[in-house]
Amino acid sequence: MSDKIRKHIIFSGRVQGVGFRWHSKNFADSVGLTGWVQNLEDGTVEMEVQGAEDKIDRLIAYLEGRNYVMIENMDCRTIPLESNEWEFHERGW
């Protein structure tokens, strides 16, 4: 049985133009999470992140502590694991 989970999260608030994706990638890489993050046209940020739940929680706490980032809401759900994913990356613009 795997201790990995995968979360799909939509972040709203002041989450674009503040280094959110860059910080997400760097932290995820440093703790071994995989997945992706992208800006959406409505001003929110979408993320799928996979790994140990405590590391995902640490990523979210890290993002909440960044200067200029203000997460007002997170729509979060658990989704099926991706078996052929090896890194965390930024998508889109």
Describe this structure in words.
With 93 residues, the protein is an alpha+beta fold. It has two helices and five strands. It has a five-stranded mixed β-sheet with strand order 4-1-3-2-5, with helices on one face. Helix 1 (20-31) runs antiparallel to helix 2 (53-64). The longest helix has 12 residues, at 20-31. The protein is globular. The model has no long low-confidence stretch (mean pLDDT 95).
List the helices and strands and how they pair.
Layout: E1 4-14, H1 20-31, E2 34-39, E3 45-52, H2 53-64, E4 70-79, E5 88-91
Parallel strand pairs: 2-5
Antiparallel strand pairs: 1-3, 1-4, 2-3
Helix pairs in contact: 1-2
Succession of helices and strands = EHEEHEE
What low-confidence regions span 5 or more consecutive residues with pLDDT below 50?
A: none
**Share of residues in helices:** 25-40%
Q: What oligomerization state is this entry in?
A: single chain
Largest sheet: 5 strands, mixed
What spatial form do the alpha-carbon principal axes imply? globular
What count of helical segments does DSSP give?
2
The secondary structure category is alpha+beta
Keywords:
single chain; 93 residues; alpha+beta; five-stranded mixed sheet; 5 strands; 26% helix; globular
Task: Give a nutshell description of this structure.
The chain has helices spanning 20-31, 53-64, and strands at residues 4-14, 34-39, 45-52, 70-79, 88-91. It is of the alpha+beta class and 93 residues long.
